[in-house]
């Protein structure tokens, strides 16, 4: 068993233990939100499922969970650098007394607030969002009626008729190019796609390219392009071979062997 | 019909007072003198004088509306006389009492703020998350930036806190040094406990 891979299901986190540690170290998960006791219980349950005691896993787990606990403690008490343990007994007592006195004063202040709240409990006042500040005025430049008329005249012109030419585009069927390329490949081993579609319209070129992709998909052709935007080279693959060629192949192999 | 019209004072300060009165009745937050002066386009000293007139006019026992100096500005509130009736009609800003944890957290933020949750927790000795969340929900504290880039969020008290506790500012809180037992007494008690403990 590897402690790091221990699967956890906590309120703040669900997943393997090492991911939790990673998130804590990256400050994406607050150590204070992590229920360390639940992690320990999960580990002990996993241990209990096995007959033998895995000392390596236990040791690793102890180290990891101790670090996590230390991070959590530091997160809660970041000013605790002057650890009481590092101080001389008298200094420690002094520090403890200072903290207790501080807390005592805060407690007294809380009491003062409670009394004040009680005394002022009959205060009613208007609450709510403040009315919005007025929007800043944006002064317009002095207006000339003739200019306004000119601007309107520009708008009143009949708009140009919208061309619907693109709606009438007819796409040649992909099958047309499939047949054309297959016929070409029966005659030639390879050809240049760019040379073949040269002179065709943009749409036809696009459909031809679709046909080429279709052929490549069914493994009839192999495509090659030395660098981006270079002419595409199309080469025939085996499937394109005629039945006659297929019959001949084994004999040829045997012969060459 | 023939009753003579009541004379409306034409003194400039009276006129200014009426303008301020109008702004204060629209406002939902206390308005600082500087803000009133800018809006009324008048001198802050004259604003103070006019506000003095208004405070005299709107005081407990004389009017159902009371003008008070609170949370760094001036605001109207209902007179205490009207409180029971208001209580039947409106919710108080802090309707339910604050828990001891909430009061202590509020005291820490009011005295030591802006301060972060870990700082609050280190003084109280327990996590302050739920107390802080509750105080934010009640609008008594609000976020006030971070300790440093990516550090813990810090909190401060709000203007509502000062209004609810009827404070002109947090400077009106009793001085922290004057509160609670002094460190000397606690120190002596600690030593007494330490001496009793077997070495």
Structure description:
The complex is a heterodimer of chains A (257) and B (199). In chain A, the strands form two sheets. In chain A, strands 3-5-4 form a three-stranded antiparallel sheet. A two-stranded antiparallel ribbon of chain A has the order 1-2. Residues 246-257 of chain A have low confidence and may be disordered. Among the domains of chain A are: 3-76, no CATH class; 172-240, Structural maintenance of chromosome 1. Chain E (Arc Repressor Mutant, subunit A, Orthogonal Bundle). In chain A, helix 2 (36-48) packs antiparallel against helix 3. Helices cover 53% and strands 7% of the residues of chain A. Chain A has nine helices and five strands. Chain B folds into two domains: 12-89, Orthogonal Bundle (Arc Repressor Mutant, subunit A); 100-193, Winged helix-like DNA-binding domain superfamily/Winged helix DNA-binding domain (Arc Repressor Mutant, subunit A), CATH 1.10.10. Helices cover 47% and strands 13% of the residues of chain B. In chain B, the strands form two sheets. Chain B has a three-stranded antiparallel sheet. In chain B, a hairpin with a 2-residue loop joins strand 1 and strand 2 (73-78). The longest helix of chain B is centred in the N-terminal third of the chain and has 15 residues, at 12-26. The N and C termini of chain B lie far apart (98 Å). At the A-B interface, helix 4 of A face strand 2, helix 4, helix 5, helix 6 and helix 8 of B.
């Amino acid at each position: 068993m590897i402690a790091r891979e221990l699967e956890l299901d906590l309120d703040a986190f669900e997943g393997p233990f090492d991911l939790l540690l990673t998130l804590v170290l990256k400050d994406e998960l607050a150590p204070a939100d992590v229920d360390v006791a639940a992690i320990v219980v999960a580990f002990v349950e996993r241990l209990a499922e096995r007959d033998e005691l895995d000392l390596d896993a236990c040791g690793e787990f102890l180290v990891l969970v101790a670090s996590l606990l230390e991070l959590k403690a530091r997160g809660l008490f970041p000013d605790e650098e002057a650890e009481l343990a590092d101080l001389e007994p008298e200094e420690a007592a002094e520090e403890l007394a200072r903290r207790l006195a501080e807390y005592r004063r805060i407690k007294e202040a809380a009491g003062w607030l409670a009394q004040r709240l009680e005394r002022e409990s009959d205060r009613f006042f208007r609450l709510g969002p403040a009315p919005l500040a007025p929007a800043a005025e944006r002064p317009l430049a002095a207006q000339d009626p003739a200019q306004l008329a000119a601007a309107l005249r520009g708008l009143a012109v009949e708009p140009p008729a919208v061309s619907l030419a693109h709606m009438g585009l007819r796409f040649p069927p992909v099958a047309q190019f499939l047949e054309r390329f297959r016929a070409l490949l029966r005659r030639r081993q390879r050809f240049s796609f760019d040379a073949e579609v040269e002179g065709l319209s943009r749409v036809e070129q696009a459909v031809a390219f679709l046909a080429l992709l279709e052929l490549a998909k069914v493994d009839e052709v192999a495509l090659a392009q030395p660098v981006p935007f270079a002419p595409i080279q199309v080469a025939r693959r085996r499937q394109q071979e005629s039945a006659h060629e297929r019959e001949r192949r084994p004999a040829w192999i045997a012969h060459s062997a | 019909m023939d009753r003579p019209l009541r004379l409306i004072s034409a003194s400039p300060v009276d006129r200014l007072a009426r303008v301020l009165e109008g702004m204060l009745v629209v406002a939902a937050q206390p308005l600082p003198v500087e803000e009133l002066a800018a809006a009324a386009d008048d001198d802050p000293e004259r604003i103070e004088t006019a506000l003095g007139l208004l405070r005299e006019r709107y005081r407990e026992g004389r009017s159902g509306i009371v003008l008070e100096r609170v949370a760094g500005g001036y605001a109207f509130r209902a007179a205490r006389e009207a409180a029971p009736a208001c209580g039947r009609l409106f919710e108080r800003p802090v309707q339910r009492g604050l828990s001891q944890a909430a009061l202590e957290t509020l005291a820490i933020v009011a005295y030591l703020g802006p301060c972060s949750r870990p700082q609050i927790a280190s003084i109280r000795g327990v996590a302050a998350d739920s107390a802080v969340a509750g105080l934010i929900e009640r609008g008594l504290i609000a976020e006030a930036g971070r300790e440093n880039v990516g550090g813990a969020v810090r909190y401060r008290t709000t203007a509502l806190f000062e209004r609810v506790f009827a404070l002109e500012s947090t400077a009106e809180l009793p001085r922290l040094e004057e509160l609670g037992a002094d460190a000397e007494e606690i120190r002596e008690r600690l030593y007494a406990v330490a001496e009793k403990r077997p070495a």
